[in-house]
Design goal:
Helix content: 10-25%
Number of strands: 17
Largest sheet: 9 strands, mixed
CATH topology of the largest domain: QueA-like
Number of domains: 2
Strand order of the largest sheet: 2-1-17-16-14-3-12-13-15
Number of helices: 9
Order of helices and strands: HEEHEEEEEEEEHHEHEEHEHEEHHE
CATH superfamily of the largest domain: QueA-like
């Protein structure tokens, strides 16, 4: 990713024409939430729109712009305001002044688990588990208790039935692959409560591009100040910039708040590998839109306010609900340019990995050429990228 520092690939960051492209809780509530809902299309793009490929979302990034540590203070991060024709460089704590009384800001309240666990096989071979989700107990009591789904990093995969000896003194018995016998993940039964052993013996699941081992600072800062629903293997990073002072300033300005839950999986870091985006298989994540949030969105529409999503996980949650009418369940929604957004008006997000589904999502929301120009500006102005990096504020494109 750093073979050409300071110079981005033309397919993403350079303008194609050489000019700057910036110059309900039940489904019955759905039609009322957004009076002019567009017809949902299952295709990746709308009829007549450009067909994008994976190469359209590739770019070069100098390695020194990948943030390895958080800013000194949460709200001291930089904020690229990309709503107007020309980008504006700001500081994150200015965000409340950019909002309007009557707006609704929706947060993802998932809590990052200490999901990285270490252990060894009976042969002594070292291994690592990254917990993707904790499974609910079998209501019939026929399955072993304390089951989890995890990624497994080991030199030679053990066979089903193998008992792994984990750091901290508990064991993990391999039950098989998940969600089926061909699945990429593994299902284990722990000898103790998964949340308890993660809290006592787990490590912060830092992204693969962060090179240091987790520290106490990471335990605090790779977590939002309002996290309350344990279950994520990665943080909703756009929300990491909020501190109590910014939240209080939003409230004083008359901006309402609501929450959704989406337990972010490690798949969020995986790049798309197929050039034809229609062949990409999206990872699955569990979400919930509570009844009070459905009502808050309806009230926001009635008073003429805007719905602001904090992060792509909030977008995926609300747009999954809007597309399906289901307020909870698993989603594999894959948002690319041409997607007809139903709920979100404004998006706060971090800067994303090349070839990632998240980069495709923000390009669908704000416009492909707009995002190209904003990323070019961010690199030129030395913004910090990815999970511990800076943020950007975007309006929905009139074509989205």
């Amino acid at each position: 990713m750093t073979s050409a520092p300071g110079r981005a690939r033309q397919c993403w960051l350079a303008s194609a024409d050489g000019q700057d492209p910036m110059s309900q809780y039940c489904s019955l509530h759905l039609e009322r939430v957004r009076p002019a809902l567009k017809t949902m299309h299952t295709e990746l793009s709308l009829p007549g729109s450009r067909e994008f490929t994976l190469s359209d979302f590739d770019f070069e990034l100098p390695s020194e712009l990948i943030a390895q540590h958080p800013a000194s203070e949460r709200s001291a991060s930089r904020l690229l305001d990309g709503r107007a024709n020309r980008p504006v460089d700001r500081v994150f704590r200015e965000l409340p002044d950019l909002l309007q009384p009557g707006d609704l800001m929706v947060f993802n309240d998932t809590e990052v688990m200490k999901a990285r666990l270490f252990g060894e096989k009976s042969t002594g071979g070292k291994l690592e588990l990254l917990i993707e989700r904790v499974l609910p107990p079998d209501p019939l009591g026929q399955e072993p208790p304390h089951q989890v789904v995890a990624h497994m990093k080991v030199s030679k995969k053990p066979m089903p039935g193998a008992r792994l000896h984990m750091d901290g003194g508990f064991t993990a018995t391999l039950l098989g692959r998940w969600p089926d016998e061909h699945g990429a993940l593994f299902r284990f039964a722990f000898s103790a409560d998964p949340h308890a052993v993660m809290l006592a013996h787990g490590h912060v699941p830092l992204p693969p591009y962060i090179e240091h081992a987790d520290t106490e600072q990471d335990a605090q800062r790779y977590q939002t100040v309002f996290a309350r629903e344990p279950g994520a293997a990665a943080a909703p990073t756009a929300a990491l910039h909020f501190d109590e002072a910014v939240l209080a300033a939003m409230q004083a300005r008359g901006v309402a708040r609501a929450n959704v839950t989406l337990h972010v999986g490690a798949g969020t870091f995986q790049p798309v590998k197929v050039e034809d985006l229609r062949q990409h298989r999206m990872h699955s994540e569990w979400y919930r839109v509570p009844p009070e949030t459905v009502l808050a969105i309806e009230a926001c529409r009635q008073r003429g306010g805007r719905v602001l999503a904090v992060g792509t996980t909030t977008v995926r949650t609300l747009e999954s609900w809007a597309a399906s009418g289901q307020t909870s369940g698993d989603t594999q929604i894959f948002i690319t340019p041409g997607f007809p957004f139903r709920v979100i008006d404004v998006l706060l997000t971090n800067f994303h990995l090349p070839k990632s589904t998240l980069l495709m999502l923000v390009s669908a929301f704000a416009g492909y050429d707009t995002m190209r120009a904003l990323y070019r500006h961010a690199i030129e102005q030395r913004y910090r990228f990815f999970s511990y990096g800076d943020a950007m504020l975007l309006h929905r494109s009139p074509h989205a």
